[in-house]
Amino acid sequence: MSFLGIDIGTSGLRALLVSDSGEALGTAEQGYTTSHPHSGWSEQDPAVWIAALEGAVAQLRDRHAAFAQLRGIGVAGHMHGAVLLDADDKVLRPCILWNDSRSHAEARALDARPEFRAISGNIVFPGFTAPKLEWLRKHEPDIFARTAKVLLPAAFLNLYLTGDHVADMSDSAGTSWLDVAGRDWSDVLLKNSHMRVDQMPRLVEGSAEAGVLRRCISQKWGLAGRVSVAGGAGDNAAAACGLGTLQEGQGFVSLGTSGVVLLARDRFCPAPQNALHTFCHAVPDRWYQMGVMLSAADSLTWLSSITGVSPKALTTALGPKIKAPGPVAFFPYLSGERTPHNDAAIRAGFIGIGKDSSRENLTQAVLEGVCFGLRDSFEAIAATGARYDKLYAIGGGSASSYWLSLLATVLKTPLHVPEGREFGAALGAARLGMTAALGIPVMDVMRPAPTAQVIKPVEGLIDAFDAAYTAFRAGYPILKSHPRAGLQ
C-alpha cells in the first residue's frame, strides 16, 4: 500500500508518496505564480493547483510502481484563502490569498466586535477569510451575491478529489467563522459577517475520512480499489503532524521565510491579546498555539539582496561559534509584524551603526533580531501556562549552525534538529491520509521525528542575550513613534 501527501504552497505544490511504514518513496513538485493586481493584493487562480496536482501525480505514477497501490490521500494547504464558488461549483474569481492585505479596514471592524475574539479565540487579522468576504460584499457585490460556497485551498482540492464540499477543523479555524473550542461553525460569527452556514463546507477532523476518490480520477490515475481522502489540514498543523508534535509540550520553531513558534495543546487556551493564533489541531481533541513573525529568514534574504552576498556566505563569515551580542541591533519588521504587536504598518530598523560597522556586524544584528522576534512568540505562548518539553527546529534558516546555536541561547532551551529530510507538511498530509484509510490510532502513525542533533544553549552567553532582548523589546515603541511610522 502507498499513501499520498499533497502540500499546496504559495509558490508551488509538493506531492509525497509514502509506504505503509511511513517511508518516503518519492516526491514531485510543480510551481506556479501569484498575481498582484494592486498594491497589497495577492491572488491565484485555483485551476493552477489542479494542474500542478495532475502534473505531480503524473511524475509519481511514471517513476514509482507503488503509486498503483495508493489507498489514502491527505491535502494540506496555505490557510485563510477564499475560493468562491457559484451554485454549480464554478470558480467566480481568483482566490484571495493569506498574504493579501486589502481587507485591513474590514478586519478592524470585525475585530472590534467582542464576539469574534470570544468565540474564535483569535484576533481577526486582515489575512483571515471573514474580512475578505466583507471586502467583497462592499467592493464586488455581484460576486458576493453569487457565492454559494466559500472554500479554503485545501478544501477546494478535496472537492476536486471527492466531489464534496468538506474541510477540516485546523484549516477552518483560520477563517474567523469557527467556534474553535466547540470545533464547529459559529452561527453568531457567520451572521455578524453577513454569511450563512450553508455557504460553508462540511467539517471533519483532519485524520478522519472526508470522502472517497472519484471514480473518474481513480481511472485516470490508473488506480484500482478504494482510495480514502482525509479531511487534511492547514499547513502548520500538517507540519506538526509530520513532526509528530501532537501532545502538550511538543512543538517546533520554524526559521522559514516567515518565523513560527508552534506548540501543541491538549486544551483550548486562547490569548488573542498577545496576537497569538489558537487553532484546532488536525487530530481530535487537540489544539495548537502559534506565534508568527512575518520576516524571519526573509530578513537575511533582504540583507543578501542589498549586499550581493549569499545568505550562506553571510552566516559562514561569522565563524563556527556564536559571539556575544553585537554593537548593532536590528528590528525585523520589514513587512510589519503579527506576534505580539499585530501591526501591519511598523517597519524595520537598525540602531548602533557607525563608520566602523562591518557587513558581519549587520549580519549578526539580523540573525539576533530574528531570534529576538521569535522569542517574543515563545514568551507569549509561555505566558498562557504552556510548557516546552521538546522543541524541534525546522525551516531553511535551520541549515545555519550559527543561527541555531544563537536561537537556542536566546530561547534558553535546547533545539532538536529532526533526522532526515521528510518531516514537513507533505508528510503530515500523507500521515492523515493513512489514518483515514486504515482507521488506525493517530498516535501509532504520527510518531515524533527522531532527533539527529540537539543544539544546546551557550550557557555563558545567556545573561548577555537576556539583556540584549530587554533592549530589543524597548525598540518597538521607538520605531512606532518615528514620524514616518505607518507611511507606506
UniProtKB/TrEMBL annotation:
The active site is at residue 235. One of its GO terms (molecular function) is D-xylulokinase activity. Residues 3-242 form the Carbohydrate kinase FGGY N-terminal domain. It comes from the Bacteria. The record marks 7 as: Important for activity. Keywords: ATP-binding, Carbohydrate metabolism, Kinase, Nucleotide-binding, Plasmid, Transferase, Xylose metabolism. The keyword Isomerase does not apply. Residues 252-437 form the Carbohydrate kinase FGGY C-terminal domain. It is an enzyme of class 2 (transferase). InterPro entries: ATPase_NBD, Carb_kinase_FGGY, Carb_kinase_FGGY_CS, FGGY_C, FGGY_Carb_Kinase, FGGY_N, Xylulokinase. Its EC number is 2.7.1.17. It catalyses: D-xylulose + ATP = D-xylulose 5-phosphate + ADP + H(+). Substrate binds at residues 79-80. GO terms for biological process: D-xylose metabolic process; xylulose catabolic process. Belongs to the FGGY kinase family. PANTHER family: SUGAR KINASE, XYLULOSE KINASE. Catalyzes the phosphorylation of D-xylulose to D-xylulose 5-phosphate. This is Xylulose kinase. It comes from Pseudorhodobacter turbinis. The gene is xylB.
